[in-house]
Amino acid sequence: MGREIIWQIESNYALVSCINNGRGIIVEKEIAPKDVNITNISWVNEVSIFFREKLSKLGVPLASPYLCFEKDGKAIQQSPYVGLDIEKIFQGGKAELLIIEKMLTAMKGVLEQKTPEVGIDARLSNFCIGPNNEIYYVDTFPPLVKYGEKYIVHFPNPTNQKTIQEELKRKFDPMGILRRFRFAILEQNVGFTENDILCCIHNALGYELAAKAKNFFTTFLDHLEVNDAFDQLNLNDPDGIRELALKLIPSNGDRKIFLKEIFNLSSNFCPYNLTKKERMDKIKILMQAQICV
Ligand SMILES: Nc1ncnc2c1ncn2[C@@H]1O[C@H](COP(=O)(O)OP(=O)(O)O)[C@@H](O)[C@H]1O
Ligand SMILES: [Mg+2]
Predict the structure, then answer these.
(1) pLDDT at 293 over 60
(2) Which residues surround ligand 2, an ion (CB under 5 A)?
(3) What sign has the CA pseudo-torsion 247, 252, 253, 257?
(4) pLDDT tens per residue, range 206-223
(5) Is it the case that residue 25 has pLDDT exceeding 80?
(6) Helices (DSSP H) in 58-127: which residue ranges?
(7) Cis geometry, peptide bond prior to residue 156 (ω within 30 degrees of 0)
(8) What's the CA-to-centroid distance between 292 and ligand 1, angstroms?
(9) Is 292 helix (H, G, I), strand (E, B) or coil?
(10) Could you tell me the distance, in angstroms and rounded to a whole number, from the CA of residue 143 to the centre of ligand 1?
(11) 194-205 and 207-217 helices cross at what angle (nearest 10)?
């Protein structure tokens, strides 16, 4: 049977292809080609399936059926194509607060866990909208889940306890998830404010979480005067760095490139071979250039 590739993207964790296989349109992820090998293929697929089961139990809508298998030494994961992702919808001029509310409703079960054992990566490109405006969470690799006694927070998973704790705070804890979500929306620059986001949280999740989020958001560096915030930049707070970067960036020019660079430099999994000091120096230089513009 024929396989026509409709589009293909290479991300940090996968080679993602949208394919017409003659029976329908599917999305196929070849997981982390650089890091997957014969020793971990079955682990990669098993933990992904486990994570999906946990998400599903918490009511998170997923693209199904999801097939995980091994082919020519590669870990392959397939799901049906379920529609455009929400980042593309926003960038196409179709941003709506109702979509934000629906995403929060989709994540509700994860956000209401008493002791979080399941995480979620709440960036807009990880959610798609189907033909009846239904939402799907599509990014189930790397898994974010307690697997046996271990928390899986990244791939390859860090061994350093401090990094694991930080990632749990950012991707499993409800306030950390809402923080990333707030950033993902403000990053799109479509005119939505923090207050709009808080209203959506209130509508989708209720007063208590909204009040907690409101208090938490006021502690962020982007609530300070720029020079004061600049003095407090720290690699232990990658979100603070990214949020301040967002506040400094003009809406034109190389916004996307700048933000991607700040994202990489501030990441706990920075892809560059630089010391912490070199990363911080680069971040400050990039930001200062914006302040002086
Ligand atoms: N089932 C799916 N239906 C439609 N689009 C999808 C689907 N799975 C992935 N995508 C698209 O591919 C992109 C990358 O996939 P994702 O699973 O988020 O991997 P990663 O972020 O690790 O590269 C998504 O942002 C989305 O645009
Ligand atoms: Mg993704």
Answers:
(1) no
(2) 126, 139
(3) positive
(4) 999 999 999 999 999 999
(5) yes
(6) 86-91, 97-111
(7) yes
(8) 37
(9) helix
(10) 14
(11) 150
| Distance in angstroms (rounded) separating the CA atoms of residues 197 and 150 | 33
CB contact at 8 A, 221 and 183: no
Instruction: Put residue 193 in one of left, alpha, beta given phi > 0 → left and psi -120 to 50 → alpha.
Output: beta
Angle between helices 97-111 and 194-205 (to 10 degrees): 50
The C-alpha atoms of residue 174 and residue 179 are separated, in whole angstroms, by 9
How far is it, in rounded angstroms, from Cα 152 to Cα 200? 29
Q: Quickly state the pLDDT bin for 256 (edges 50, 70, 90).
A: confident
* Residue 18 host element (H or E): strand 14-20
End-to-end C-alpha distance for the chain, whole angstroms? 56
Topology of domain 4-80, CATH: Phosphorylase Kinase; domain 1 (3.30.200)
Say if residues 79 and 66 touch (Cβ distance below 8 Å): yes
Quote the mean pLDDT of the chain: 94
Q: Name every residue whose Cβ is closer than 8 Å to that of residue 87 and which is 6 or more positions away in sequence.
A: 123, 124, 125, 184, 188
Pocket residue to mutate for ligand 1, from 27, 29, 171, most atoms within 8 A of Cβ: 27
Q: Structural domain boundaries of the chain? A: 4-80, 220-293
Count of Cβ atoms closer than 10 Å to residue 113 Cβ: 15
| Cis amide bond preceding 142, omega within 30 | yes
